[in-house]
Specification:
Blueprint (H helix, E strand, L loop, with lengths): L14 H14 L8 E2 L1 H8 L3 H13 L3 E4 L3 E4 L4 H22 L5 H16 L7 H12 L7 H9 L7 H19 L3 H27 L1
Antiparallel strand pairs: 1-3, 2-3
Helix pairs in contact: 1-3, 2-3, 4-7, 4-9, 5-6, 5-8, 8-9
GO molecular function: DNA binding; DNA-binding transcription factor activity
Pfam family, one: GntR
InterPro entries: GntR_C, TF_FadR/GntR_C, Tscrpt_reg_HTH_GntR, WH-like_DNA-bd_sf, WH_DNA-bd_sf
Length: 216
């Protein structure tokens, strides 16, 4: 496809998230190749935005291991592999399940109301997938926002929250979100742990299939 096709991003409140999502997807799909130099000015023109959201997105992708900053070159693509996906999602499954388990006794009625509202918005993403990653991140982070540990949320933030999915995949993810929220509403930390762990491990397998399809 042409270098400016399908990348333009609206300048609204979700600008940073949308730039990050599209850039992450472009790397995972192989649009940007392993070892390719990502020039901020060129990316800003490609996405139709200023350099600031590009710079922020590159910092996050460096944290996720998808790019690296090389002296005298700047940002360089480091293609994510099946091994990377397995490592990231195995770690995330354990850590986020633990975060939820420790958070369930602390989650408030107001939090539960907000989580239900986010699920309604996530259901809308079945038809309009662009906002899924941003809303998914809000849902997951709200689940452990009351956690009174400082390091664990930082570790989880560094692992990222996946890629845009198809409507069918989003519907499956939302189904699992409801089961997780059900455990929260019942104040059952052990069931919450199991459901969160299963959800994230399945998501990791789904992303592996995504990589196979995109590179076929």
């Amino acid at each position: 496809m042409e270098k400016n096709e399908g990348f333009r991003v609206d300048n609204h409140s979700t600008l940073h998230s949308r730039v990050l999502n599209k850039l992450r997807q472009a790397i995972m799909s192989g649009y940007f190749k392993d070892g390719e130099h990502l020039i901020q000015d060129e990316l800003a023109e490609l996405f139709g935005v200023s350099r600031m959201p590009i710079r922020e997105a590159l910092r996050q992708l460096e944290t996720e291991g998808m790019i690296e900053f090389v002296p005298h070159k700047g940002a360089v693509v480091r293609s994510i592999t099946f091994k990377d996906i397995e490592e990231i999602y195995t770690i995330r499954a354990m850590l986020e399940a633990l975060a939820l388990e420790k958070s369930i006794p602390l989650i408030t009625a107001e939090d539960i109301e907000e989580l239900n509202e986010l699920l309604i918005k996530l259901d809308e993403c079945v038809e309009k997938p662009d906002n899924f990653v941003s809303l998914n991140k809000q849902f997951h982070r709200l689940l452990y926002s009351r956690l009174n540990w400082t390091r664990l949320p930082k570790y989880l933030k560094s692992l990222g929250y996946g890629i845009p999915l198809t409507g069918k995949q989003i519907a499956k993810s939302n189904q699992e979100h409801r089961l997780i929220l059900e455990a929260v509403e019942k104040r059952d930390p052990k069931i919450g742990f199991k459901r969160m762990q299963a959800h994230i491990l399945r998501t990791g397998k789904q992303i592996k299939h995504y990589l196979i399809e995109k590179k076929a």
